[in-house]
Automatic annotation (TrEMBL):
InterPro entries: C-N_Hydrolase, C-N_Hydrolase_sf. PROSITE patterns: CN_HYDROLASE. This is Hydrolase. Keywords: Hydrolase. Residues 3-239 form the CN hydrolase domain. The lineage of its organism: Bacteria, Bacillati, Bacillota, Bacilli, Bacillales. Gene3D superfamilies: Carbon-nitrogen hydrolase (3.60.110.10). It comes from the Bacteria. Belongs to the carbon-nitrogen hydrolase superfamily. NIT1/NIT2 family. It comes from Peribacillus simplex.
């Protein structure tokens, strides 16, 4: 089975959800024209890192975003990995990835597990407590958010439970672009999985973001990589490559978890 992917590497208007919904819809139309089966949005794409105003501009129980994504998924018959948004709940605000399939079903909500202190997330957000596993077209996938990729045991926990595609949504700053690339390629090689990573472009008052969204195959080879500016990055993923890699080098069988 093959999937055509479209990563929306967009700029995000700081603290302006209404404008960002419009921008995201325009990008999504482009992905539809590119015949994508799955579209992926960046991290906190409705608000950006306007953390001090999240109480005002966050999305109550993610309801507005879910409705927005569901309508587009149904209209275009496309799976949408809805990046992440600030989800307001009674327990506080979470950085939440929302995944809706082409039938409009809410497949998964994943809350960012590792909060990034360098950008003050721990002062404004609550850490997640659940895994990022989900299934689309009978394929096991996993979702991660930005800083999560610095914790290889988190991705391994998901690939050991069958994940063949690791989706990453991010607002990764430009000064650490080398880390972004190296970490993503490593996660693909060690998990013998596709890595589909979407970063934002542009800047906010504190950061310039790196862009360079990437689609990487289970051998660690880059299928496609964006530049620094906004763009729609596409690539095709062929699941036989996952079994080829895992059969040739049986890393999962050779693991010695009793010793780790
Ligand atoms: O780990 C990093 O260098 C960047 C992480 C980050 O920007 C985030 O989690 O939002």
């Amino acid at each position: 089975m093959k999937w055509k992917l479209a990563c929306i590497q967009m700029d995000i208007a700081f603290g302006k959800p209404d404008l960002n919904y419009q921008l995201a819809e325009q990008w999504l139309e482009k992905a539809v024209h590119a015949n994508a089966d799955i579209v992926i949005l960046p991290e906190l794409w409705t608000t950006g890192y306007d953390l001090t105003r999240l109480n005002e501009i966050g999305d109550e129980e993610a309801e507005k975003t879910i409705e927005f994504i569901r309508n587009l998924a149904l209209k275009h018959q496309i799976h949408i990995i809805g990046g992440s948004i600030a989800k307001k709940t009674q327990k506080g605000i979470f950085n939440t990835m929302v995944i809706i399939d082409k039938n409009g079903k809410l497949v998964k909500e994943y809350d960012k597990l590792h909060l990034f202190r360098l950008m003050d997330e721990h002062h404004f957000l609550q850490p997640g407590e659940k895994d990022g596993l989900f299934t689309l077209d009978d394929k096991i996938c996993a979702g991660f958010i930005c800083y999560d990729i610095r914790f290889p045991e988190w991705q391994r926990a998901h690939s050991a439970r069958g994940a063949e595609v690791l989706f990453v949504t991010a607002e990764w700053p430009k000064p650490r672009l080398d880390h972004w690339r190296a970490l993503l390629i490593s996660r693909a090689i060690e998990n013998q999985a596709y890595v589909v990573a979407v970063n934002r472009s542009g800047s906010d008052i504190n950061n310039v973001f790196a862009g360079h969204s990437m689609i990487i195959d289970p051998w660690g080879y880059t299928i496609s990589e964006a530049g620094e500016e906004s763009e729609l990055l596409t690539g095709t993923l062929d699941f036989t490559e996952v079994s080829n890699a895992r059969n040739k080098i049986p890393v999962f069988e050779d693991r010695r978890p009793d010793y780790y």
